Model the fold of this input.
Amino acid sequence: ADIIFGAVVDDDLGEEMKVTVIAAGFDTRRRRPSSGVRSEFGDDNVEIPSFVQG
Done:
């Protein structure tokens, strides 16, 4: 598996922590139904680290 790690410090969160997990490279032939989990965050809350931007 390829694992890319990034971290961002947001002092506005106080004692709160937000975690984003991205998983890729799964065999699509073994698809399972979606669990129905929805994100509470929209695209406007996404920060792409500079090393990923290229």
About this structure: The mean pLDDT is 74.
